[in-house]
TrEMBL record:
Domain NAD-dependent epimerase/dehydratase: 10-247
Family annotation (Gene3D superfamilies): NAD(P)-binding Rossmann-like Domain
This protein's name: NAD-dependent epimerase/dehydratase family protein
SUPFAM superfamilies, A to Z: NAD(P)-binding Rossmann-fold domains (SSF51735)
Keyword terms: Oxidoreductase
InterPro entries, sorted: Epimerase_deHydtase (IPR001509), NAD(P)-bd_dom_sf (IPR036291), NAD(P)_dehydrat-like (IPR050425)
Superkingdom of origin: Bacteria
Molecular function GO labels: oxidoreductase activity, acting on the CH-OH group of donors, NAD or NADP as acceptor
Natural source organism: Flammeovirga yaeyamensis
Length: 352
């Protein structure tokens, strides 16, 4: 049991990210001083929304210039913190060199932050943002799990540098986190393993999340002929921020937490937008046949290989979220609210 003193500052790495921005707001709302670690504190386009949050809420925000791949980069920002949130990690899938662009930043970044925690006597708990993809690569993998669904006991064993390297990067980064945590006794580690994150971006114009890209495709006509019934889990970014907050401040929190609200698929996600936006945008109304996707997929998106389509389309995705519900008392927004609020941000910012 780890009691965190809320009068002490809390470090958030990658503080201007899609998920981290909502976590920062959650902390500020609760009157906490946030040490916001970002690559460039002077870039107002990327941190202006955080400055505004600091003005709006009772907590205080202080910025620190950091770099994931530079040793001891986080030492100053971590001083005096009992709680560290490590959210910084690239979420991109289209890369030239998976080792350099995904695996190294994820693993080395995690290692840098956690080794700094070892050298910072005030630190009592580290919460790392991992991913459900640290438990599986393809929806078809679920058939080989003990429950036929993913839970906290399952690890990804099928991703590689050649296939789903993003999933590999998250798996190796989380394994590195547990390896470092298990080798010391000063602080405890909790990991949050979110499913596909949707919900409104605090800074839509500067957000590069893959989630926004999928949403944009739903509105720009890419899925007009139909959306693939590709199985995924979805979590609202605002609920995910609350999950992080609770993971940090609940003394009994421990281990991994699968953080997924809905077992769904791309078609079902698109259909939730019909009521509000269907009249004005070419949203998907039906499923794209798997055989057709096998033919055209590889030409429209190089990530849609035939192997990926075969292993993920028309295959149900299921996760057991009972641990986070029971341990942290989490409740989740309806899928329709998440999708509508997400899409509205794209409309408001003229992204679709």
């Amino acid at each position: 049991m780890t009691q965190i003193d809320s009068s002490k500052p809390v470090l958030v790495t990658g503080a201007n990210g899609y998920v981290a921005s909502w976590l920062v707001e959650e902390l500020l709302k609760n009157g906490i001083t946030v040490h916001a670690a970002v690559r460039n504190p002077d870039n107002k386009k990327k941190v202006g929304h955080l400055i505004d949050l600091g003005d709006k809420h009772p907590g205080e925000i202080k910025f620190f210039k950091t770099d994931l791949l530079t040793e001891n980069s986080y030492a100053e920002a971590m001083q005096g913190c009992e709680l560290v949130y490590h959210t910084a990690s690239p979420f991109i899938t289209d890369v030239k060199d998976p080792q350099r662009d995904l695996v190294d930043p994820a693993v080395k970044g995690t290692s840098n932050v956690l080794l700094t925690a070892n050298n910072t006597p005030s630190v009592k708990r580290v919460v790392v943002t991992s991913s459900v993809v640290a438990t599986y690569t393809d929806a078809s993998d679920l058939a080989n799990t003990p429950k036929g669904m993913i839970d906290e006991e399952v690890w990804n064993t099928t991703a590689s540098l050649d296939y789903q390297p993003y999933s590999l990067s998250k798996t190796l980064a989380e394994k590195k986190a547990w390896e470092i945590a298990d080798a010391q006794s000063q602080w405890d580690l909790v990991t949050i393993n979110p499913a596909f994150v949707m919900g409104p971006a605090q800074n839509a114009v500067a957000t590069t999340s893959e989630s926004m890209a999928v949403l944009k495709q739903m509105g720009d006509g890419t899925f007009k002929m139909g959306a693939p019934k590709m199985g995924v889990g979805v979590i609202d970014v605002r609920d995910l921020a609350v999950a992080h907050y609770k993971a940090g401040f609940t003394p009994e929190a421990k281990g991994r937490y699968i953080t997924s609200a809905h077992n769904t698929n791309f078609l079902e996600m698109g259909l939730t937008l019909q009521d509000k936006f269907g009249a004005n945008y070419p949203l998907p109304k039906k499923a794209l046949p798997k055989w057709l996707l096998m033919i055209v997929g590889p030409f429209t998106n190089k990530l849609l290989t035939r192997r990926f389509i075969k292993n993920n389309v028309n295959i149900e995705w299921k996760a057991d979220n009972s641990k986070i519900v029971n341990d942290l008392g989490m409740t989740f927004r309806p899928l329709q609210e998440t999708m509508e609020d997400s899409f509205q941000v794209l409309v408001d910012n003229k992204i679709v």
